[in-house]
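Hey L., structure's done. Input below.
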Amino acid sequence: MHKPDHRVVLGRIVGVFGVRGWVKVLSATEPLENILKYSPWWLSRAPNPKAPGAQSDQSGMDPAAREWPVLQGQRHGKGLIARLQACDDRDQAQALVGHEISVWRSQLPAPAADEFYWTDLEGLAVETVSGQPLGAVHHLLATGANDVLVVRGERERLIPFVWEQVIRELDFAQGRISVDWDPDF
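Output:
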């Protein structure tokens, strides 16, 4: 099942650094610096789905996202800082605080044969090993113990992403995940 190219959120701008337009970046990549390998970034405010007239593209993000080439970036303390094209002073940088950083899925390197990106799981149908549908993967959560699938159907379920014990089969071609999970839970 081939998903169309879509934007994947890799981080967020969380502050400003200095007076020359640098921004502080919260990265969701591992290692943190990997976010700096991608350029351009697409910056957008996450849409408020409850706002009147709220719109999003196929990725669920603001279609008015703006492309920002990354000129420089580096580790600073426990975080990252970056300088973006056309962001030359503190006021311009301040206007970007709170924006999500995304890139096109096609910009990411291909995963190894036995690996995948979380974004590739989003939208897959989830069913029990007996074939009872539970919904579709909305997103995933990282927890200390294991990752968790957030599955939305007739109700929301949190299903631990634990191979063999819970996750029995992952079939991208059929667009589904088979789980050993009690539908009443």
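Helices lie at 90-94, 118-121. Residues 73 and 82 are 4 Å apart (CA to CA).

-- N.
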